[in-house]
Design brief:
Shape: globular
Distance between the termini: 29 Å
Strand content: under 5%
Number of domains: 1
Number of strands: 0
Structural class: mainly alpha
Radius of gyration: 17 Å
Largest sheet: none
Number of helices: 10
Length: 249
């Protein structure tokens, strides 16, 4: 196993916690996904973490798609995907030109911007805000989502805003998002592999995190209705912001 993938016990524990959070985020608490991405970037060099987290996310996506497989609204997905694919390609080009010392603070900055955007949205009266649903809105959101997901696996808040703008009921909201991330993350795999971010060493770490991801996903399904969402999301966002700031400095 390559040296950057040789983990002391403490860092492996952080990745296991991240895996558990990813599983839980896919079936119950979406806000945990951003915190998991940030923690993983603290446990490993930033570039290496993006490949490992990508495979972890795909494992979590499998649970989400299986659970919400019949709830996707494909009209919205098909309109978004061409622009998201373009954004992923842009992120791939950028990722190939920046080193770890540049990517680490970039991930922190992207996550802070996504948190700020999510916070702004939640503070608005969504019934009074007319968010456009024309093609250029899907183009704009798709490009941003694709670029940020390739660079930092941090497109969650962007997708939340897009799906809210579509006015989807709860199950369709979750199901559409689940299919989007599953397909987008699969599309990213060849690009990450080409950059050396997914390799034999990284996949060995992914195998170790799989039980934690599965546990989080199953637990999320069980406790979804029992989570005090408002208080929990506030705590998660505070912890995520603190972790993102750690990446910046």
């Amino acid at each position: 196993m390559g040296s950057i993938y040789t983990l002391p016990a403490a860092r492996l524990c952080i990745l296991l916690v991240s895996g558990f959070m990813i599983g839980l985020s896919k079936t119950a608490v979406p806000g945990l996904g951003t915190l998991a991405v940030t923690l993983s970037a603290m446990a490993l060099p930033a570039r290496a973490s993006t490949g490992i987290v990508l495979v972890m996310l795909i494992c979590g996506d499998v649970f989400a798609v299986a659970y919400y497989r019949r709830n996707a609204v494909w009209t919205h997905l098909l309109r978004l995907f061409p622009y998201a694919i373009a954004g992923i390609i842009i992120g791939y080009v950028l990722l190939g030109k920046i080193d770890d010392s540049q990517l680490r603070p970039a991930i922190g900055l992207i996550i802070l911007c996504m948190l700020a955007l999510n916070y702004w949205w939640k503070k608005q009266d969504t019934e009074k805000i007319n968010i456009p649903s024309r093609w250029w809105f899907a183009a704009f959101m798709g490009l941003i989502a694709g670029t940020t997901t390739m660079l930092a696996n941090a497109a969650g808040p962007i997708m939340i805003i897009y799906l809210l703008a579509m006015g989807l009921p709860k199950k369709e909201f979750i199901g559409t998002g689940a299919w989007y991330f599953f397909l987008a993350n699969l599309f990213k795999v060849p690009f990450s592999a080409n950059l050396g971010l997914i390799n034999t060493s990284s996949l060995k770490i992914n195998v170790m995190t799989l039980p934690a991801i599965a546990l989080g996903a199953v637990l999320g399904i069980v406790i979804l209705k029992k989570i005090p969402e408002r208080a929990f999301n506030i705590i998660v966002q505070i912890l995520t912001a603190a972790a993102a700031l750690k990446l910046l400095f």
